[in-house]
Amino acid sequence: MPDSKQQSGVVDDPANIPSPSLGPPSTGNLVSDSFRSAVHIGEVPCARNSLLAGIASGVGIGFIRGMSAHPVVAGSWGMFTWAVISLTSFHFCTKRLEDQRQLTRLAIEKLPKQLRLKKEDDKESSSG
User: pTM of the predicted model, to two decimals?
Assistant: First the structure.
C-alpha cells in the first residue's frame, strides 16, 4: 500500500518531505568524493548560478582593478570578489529555497485531511 501513496503524490507527514540531493553519496574516500562532487556540481541547488555570478563579478573587478594595479594585486581582488559573491549568493539562494520548503510544509499541514482523502479516492477510482 505505501506504493500507491507514493504514486498518488499524497504526503501524510510534511516533515518527511525529502530534501534535494546535494550530490552523490559519500564513499569515505576524500579524493574520490571530492572529484565526484566536482563532477556533479550542477546537481547541487543554487551552485551553478552562484558560481556564475561569482565568476562574472570576479572577472569584472579583476579587470577594472588591473587597469590601475599590478596583475597580482588585480588577481587577488578578482579571486576575493569571486569567493565573496559566490558564497553570499549561494547562502541567500539556499535560504530562499528553505523558506519556500517551509511554506510548502505549512500549506500541506493546513490542507484539510478530507480534501486529501477525497483526491486520493478520486485518483484510485479513475485508475482502478
Answer: 0.62
- Residue count (the chain): 128
Q: What is the pLDDT of residue 106?
A: 85
CA distances from 97 to 40, 68, 90, 106 (A): 20, 40, 11, 14
Regions of the chain with pLDDT less than 50: 1-11
Rounded Cα gap, residues 37 and 117, in angstroms:
41
- Identify the pLDDT of residue 113: 66
Q: Distance (Å, rounded) from C-alpha 37 to C-alpha 60?
A: 28
Judge whether 50 and 93 are in contact, CB under 8 Å: yes
Q: How many CB atoms lie within 10 A of CB 60?
A: 13
